Each structure stands twice: as C-alpha cells, then as structure tokens.
Inverse folding.
C-alpha cells in the first residue's frame, strides 16, 4: 500500500513538473523597467499606474492569455537598468521588456534585450542611435524619437517669426539631442546656447546671464525636478511675462501642480495631451483620474499604449509567443486604439505621428492644465530613419 | 558688465550662505562626534517638507517657518537618540552604511506621507518682489536668504566663541576624551549639537523650499557640495565651514557664469561651448583636489 502511495505521489509530481512548461506557455510575461525610487520615482509611479489601468481595461489578460507583469526599478542608472533587464530575461523568462524613461538607460537596456532575442517595447526614451544606425528589428518604440518634439517647437517658433532666442538645456545626451532637433527646424537667430550641469538645482547665475543678453524669447529643455526649479526661479527673477518661455518636456501634468501660477502661459510641444479628442484617450484620462485621483501625464499615456500594443500583437499571432518576428510584424500594424489617435510605424519601428502646440492655462474650475492650441506637424517622421537598414 | 559681475557675486554669496547653513551642522557633528552623517541632507528635506505642511496648516509663512524649525530640531534629536547613539564607537564605514540607510528611510517615509510628486511651495507676497539697485534688479527673497544666512553665521560665531556651550563645543572638537574626563555630560552635548545641526539643515531646507523643488531625495543633490565645503574648510571647524561655503558658492557661480565667455576669448567659441560647461561643473572638485594636495587638513583645521 505504502509503495503504491509513493509511486502515485511520484507520478503526480512528475506530471506536475511535466505540466509546468505547458502552463508557462499560456502566460504572457512582461518585464516593465522604470524609475520607481529617488527624485524621479514620480514618473515611474505614473507609468506603473498606466500599465495597471491598461490591464484593468483588458480584463487582466494580454491577447486573451493570463499575464504577469514584473516591475523593475532602474534607479535612473544605465548599469542598474541593464542588470534588471538581464534578471528579467534569465530568471523570469519574460517575453517582452517594456518601459525605460532615460535615453542613457535605454542605450544599455535595449541591446541586452534584443541580443537575447526578446522584444523591447520602449515607452519613453527615444535616443537617436536606436532610431538610426543601431536600429533593431526587435526594438519597437511606442513613444517618440527624442528630436521630434523640439523639432515641432523649432518649426512653430520659426513660423511665428520669433528670433533672437536664448537656448538652455542640461549637459547630457538628451539635452544635446533636444537642441539639435530644435535647430533642425528653427531658422531664426540664436543668441546663445547654454548647457547646465545635469541635476542642477539653482539657475540664478544662468538667469542673470540670460537677462544680460536681453533675448526676445527663451527655449529650454528641463525635465523633472530641474524644470520645476527653473520655472520657479525664472518667475522669481521677474522674467515671466517679460521674455516668453518655450519648452519641451519641462511643463507637464507632474510639474504643473508643483510650479503653479509660475507656469501660466507656458508653451510646450507634445504628441499627446489629456484634452486630445478621441474615445480611447477620453476613456484613459477619465478612468485614470477616477482610479488615481490626478491627471495622467504623457509618460503614462505612452506606457498605456505600450501594453495595448503588446495586447494587439499577441492577439494577432494567436498567442504564439515563440515567433518574435511575427509579433513585431503584428506590432508594426499599430492595430489598436491609441490614446494619441491613429498612427503608423516607420521602417525603424518608431512612430510617424502628429505633434501639437500646448499652452498652460486655467480650466473652468481654475485648475492649471495643458491645452492643445494647434497641430504643428502631421504624420511627422524622425530625422534618422534613413540611416536604419531595416526593410519590411 | 560691472553690474553683471556684482549681480553674480550676490548670487555666489547667496549659494554660499545656503551651503554654510548645511555645512555648519555637518562639520560640527563630524568634528565633535567623529560621525560621518550622510543623512544630513535628509534633515534638509524634512525641514522643507515640514515648512510646506505647517505653512499650509497655519496659513502663515512665519508660523510655518518657526514650527518647521522646531519640528526639524525634534526629528534631529530623535534620530540622534534612536539611531546615531549606537554608532559613535563604530568605524566610519559602519556609520556611512547606517546613515545611508537613514537616507533611504527618510526618502521613503516622505514619499509615503506626501507622495512622490514635488509639492507646491510658493513665496508669500511680501517676499516675492524685487529690489532695484541702479540697473540691478535682484529678487527680494534671495536677498533675504543672504541676510538670514549672514545673521545665523554671526549668531553661531557668538555662541561658539562667547558662550559656555560654545566653549564645550570647541573643547569637544579638540579633545573629546579630555572633555568627558572633566565631568562634562558628553552624551547631552552630542544630542544638543546634533539637534542644532539638524535645525540649521532644516533652516536651509525651509529657505530652499520656495526656489527649489520640494520632493523626495532633494537633500542628496546639495549634500555632495556640502561635503566639498567641509573638506575645503577643514573638518570640524565652523570658521572653515563659512570660508569653504563662501569660496565654493563664489567659484561655482562665477565659473558657471563667466568661464564660457572667458574661454571663448582665448580659444574658438566651439571649444568654449564644449569645455565651458564641463569645466564649470568640475571647478569646485578641482578646487577640493588642490586643497587636499596642498593642505590636507583644510584651510582652517579645527585642531590646529
């Protein structure tokens, strides 16, 4: 009797073990890398919230399969980001790695992911090499290429006949990319180009220099906490209302509540805004506000789109996660209801999409919000896609 | 041009006094208790957060400042009693590890209470104007920071040089064992010094609140510069902290403002564009390296 029991137990165990890989096949695993700690953790929080909201909207399924999302904190550091990605691939055996806020982190994470034969779905950073010469068939970017947004601002300011512009950005890769993008479409005169230390908190010295040059307009790129500090200090120096300030990635739904009135009238360009009119966006914005009690921000909108994009691809290949080529091919159709409305993928797996001019204004309830003023670019392609050898 | 140089000197002075408020507490704690306190920046953050919270609660800027000062003092004393007491006899690596743990603890605590997003912190109307000095338009608030910073420096000098407490602090910095042997309650002295160091860091945080971004981790951004200040000034010396802070404030500000145009007069503008910002952000570290090479004890060593 005892022997039989043992044999039965062993057989049961063997069966269970044998069943494991099969069960694993039925589950989609997504590794989502973002910054969850430190000063920039607030961005990661918005991205994570949006992933969860997308899963809610999909009934906690991806392409009809069960899903497990493993969140990883890159601490805004390239080496940590790569470690987290390696762990997701080797230990958790993920099918997709998504997320990544910072361009320098993306440059470390993406090759690790695509090199392991997994699909990278970038939901923020768009460094130029990955759109150009170093593009990869398994790297899909569902946000934008870095240069695109400042290009839109350069175009708008040029068209508006604005000249004598003072340009400022932090001294790192994305800062240089932004200024390059701006200058690609801005045809007026640039008074001076100033690069400040990344993570600098005090801009009073630079603001004094700026005022001494007496420019007609100022263009800046100061993401995160840097933007909050710059805007406050610009206002306190008495320059708001005197020298108009134009920016990219500086004023958004995260910084607006912290900056308050000091941001009123601020111009930005962006591919998305909470007031963009389409059913997917209206659902996303209203459910986000209901669930989390605050306005969503573009970082979140892109992450929401990233999950929806993965869902559409898994659905298209009928759950055959092994066929990464077919998955990417399905992704390239962008066959889902994006919060930005209809868009297409270019040969380098980066979006071809519209860019809008936004302005910080007070809404009916007196709350500061970003409002779309006009479309600057329609179906705008990034400047690097010719350098990408991919053909579809 | 003269006006601009003067304005940048004022900016440098303002950065210097802010650094001094942080450096004073840090250098005393290091000099007297022989404790490396990486969590000093957390007290700066706590000061800023408490100010925002109390100012909102009471509706008054001044009441917010006073309550936040008391609050940071209390938090500092609590940290000393609960966590740091056990560390005085341990070596510096243990202290660095433990106080780094405190940084993580405070950042997460603040994120749990107030959220990760930066808080809104505005100036009261009576502090938000400008002062006109000829062609110079200087923000009133920055001027107020300079005045408060200099007043606190004078007050500290008076306490350290003219009072019994100051005598004990100076004695403690020179020879701790002797002070204890003479029957002074060294534990109480430690708690008092740490508490006031915390309150000074809190004051720096409170004053930084309206111009910087009040968010978790804000303390670490300034802490590195503060360490540079106390290394340059000489560890444990208030005089050194003041001198170091003013030097670092001036060098950093003037470097950021004038290094690029200066380089452009010697080399091509392209070289100045690339080298200028990089050099300007390295200047204070190069200065620190030079001081360490020529005077390893700092400019004003405490145990001279």
């Amino acid at each position: 009797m005892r022997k039989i029991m043992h044999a039965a137990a062993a057989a049961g165990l063997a069966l269970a073990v044998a069943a494991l890989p099969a069960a694993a096949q039925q589950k989609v695993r997504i590794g989502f890398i973002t910054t969850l700690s430190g000063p920039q953790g607030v961005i990661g929080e918005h991205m994570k919230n949006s992933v969860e909201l997308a899963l809610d909207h999909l009934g906690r399924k991806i392409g009809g399969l069960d899903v497990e999302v493993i969140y990883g904190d890159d601490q805004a550091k390239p080496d940590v980001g790569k470690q987290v990605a390696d762990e997701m691939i080797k230990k958790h055996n993920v099918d997709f790695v998504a997320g990544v806020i910072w361009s320098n982190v993306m440059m470390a994470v993406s090759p690790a992911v695509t090199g392991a034969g997994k699909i990278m779905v970038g939901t923020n950073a768009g460094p130029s090499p990955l759109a150009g010469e170093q593009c990869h068939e398994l790297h899909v970017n569902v946000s934008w290429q870095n240069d695109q947004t400042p290009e839109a601002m350069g175009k708008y300011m040029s068209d508006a006949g604005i000249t004598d512009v003072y340009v400022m950005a932090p001294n790192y890769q994305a800062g240089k990319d932004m200024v390059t993008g701006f200058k690609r479409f801005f045809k007026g005169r640039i008074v001076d180009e100033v690069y400040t230390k990344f993570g600098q908190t005090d801009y009073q010295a630079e603001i004094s220099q700026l005022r001494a040059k007496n420019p007609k307009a100022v263009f800046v790129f100061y993401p995160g906490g840097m933007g909050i500090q710059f805007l406050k200090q610009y206002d306190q120096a008495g320059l708001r209302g005197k020298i108009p300030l134009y920016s990219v990635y500086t004023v958004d739904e995260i910084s607006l509540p912290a900056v308050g009135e000091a941001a009123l009238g601020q111009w930005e360009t962006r591919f998305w805004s909470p007031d963009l009119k389409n059913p997917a966006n209206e659902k996303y914005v209203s459910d986000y506000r209901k669930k989390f009690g605050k306005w969503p921000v573009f970082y979140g909108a892109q992450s929401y789109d990233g999950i929806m994009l993965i869902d559409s691809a898994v659905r298209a290949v009928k759950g055959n996660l092994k066929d990464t080529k077919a998955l990417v091919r399905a992704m390239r159709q962008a066959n889902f209801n994006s919060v930005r409305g209809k868009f297409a993928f270019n040969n380098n797996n980066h979006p071809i999409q519209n860019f809008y001019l936004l302005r910080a204004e007070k809404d009916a309830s007196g709350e500061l919000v970003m409002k779309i003023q006009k479309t600057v670019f329609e179906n705008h392609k990034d400047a690097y896609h010719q350098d990408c050898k991919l053909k579809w | 041009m003269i006006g601009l140089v003067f304005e940048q000197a004022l900016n440098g002075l303002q950065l210097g006094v802010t650094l001094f408020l942080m450096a004073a507490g840090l250098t005393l704690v290091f000099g007297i208790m022989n404790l490396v306190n990486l969590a000093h920046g957390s007290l700066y953050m706590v000061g800023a957060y408490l100010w925002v919270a109390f100012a909102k609660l009471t509706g008054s800027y001044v009441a917010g400042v006073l309550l936040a000062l008391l609050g940071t003092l209390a938090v500092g004393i609590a940290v000393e009693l609960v966590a740091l007491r056990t560390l005085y006899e341990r070596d510096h690596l243990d202290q660095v590890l433990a106080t780094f743990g405190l940084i993580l603890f405070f950042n997460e605590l603040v994120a749990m209470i107030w959220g990760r997003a930066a808080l809104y912190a505005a100036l009261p109307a009576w502090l938000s104007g400008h002062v006109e000095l000829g062609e110079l338009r200087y923000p009133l608030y920055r001027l107020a920071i300079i005045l408060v910073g200099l007043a606190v420096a004078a007050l500290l000098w008076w306490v350290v040089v003219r009072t019994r407490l100051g005598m004990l602090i100076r004695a403690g910095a020179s020879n701790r064992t002797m002070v204890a042997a003479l029957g002074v309650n060294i534990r109480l002295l430690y708690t008092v010094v740490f508490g006031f160091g915390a309150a000074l860091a809190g004051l720096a945080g409170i004053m930084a609140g309206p111009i910087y971004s009040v968010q978790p981790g804000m303390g670490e951004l300034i802490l590195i510069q503060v360490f540079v200040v106390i290394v340059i000034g000489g560890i444990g010396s208030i005089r050194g902290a003041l001198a170091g802070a003013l030097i670092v404030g001036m060098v950093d500000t003037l470097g950021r403002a004038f290094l690029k145009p200066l380089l452009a007069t010697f080399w091509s503008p392209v070289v100045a564009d690339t080298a200028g910002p990089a050099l300007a952000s390295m200047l204070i570290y190069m200065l620190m390296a030079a001081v360490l090479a020529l005077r390893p004890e700092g400019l004003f060593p405490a145990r001279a």
Chain B has one domain: 2-121+138-294.
